[in-house]
């Protein structure tokens, strides 16, 4: 189980280049969906949720997204059990607070399917969207990241690169 949490905690293994995230905060501010599509956005949102003691919500959401891509019944059973034990069981180490979690019994884990956690995942998504996300957009984590992006965009190096690019494309 620890291995699974570590895999989620490593920032999803996506490299993030400064070019890719240059407009990150502008994109993140458009919707929670846009934020969750950007590895750097997920990293910053998790940092914020950790301070709010609700990081398990985004970890559960990410685990469900990963689960949907799982192939093979045995692998699916293992991942389903991992998600259940980590987030949904009464003894879960990172229990999420969802309605109906008690109705999801361990017997369902024997016959897993890609969308078996969808209803619970949607509840968590809505909780993040209408609660945590709006606070994140006002948080120091978001605002400081936005400020550093703006400083980077206005730096002499960035302007010089833009001028060079415009000369190249306008010749």
From TrEMBL:
Location of region: Disordered: 1-24, 147-171
Stored PANTHER family: REGULATOR OF G-PROTEIN SIGNALING LOCO
One function term, GO molecular function aspect: G-protein alpha-subunit binding
Bias (Polar residues) ranges: 15-24
Keywords for the protein's UniProt record, in alphabetical order: GTPase activation
InterPro entries named in the record: RGS, RGS10/12/14-like, RGS10_RGS, RGS_sf, RGS_subdom1/3, RGS_subdomain_2
One GO process term, biological-process aspect: regulation of G protein-coupled receptor signaling pathway
Pfam families membership: RGS
One Gene Ontology term, aspect cellular component: cytoplasm
Protein name as catalogued: Regulator of G protein signaling 10
Residue ranges constituting the RGS domain according to the UniProt record: 31-142
SUPFAM superfamilies hit by this protein: Regulator of G-protein signaling, RGS
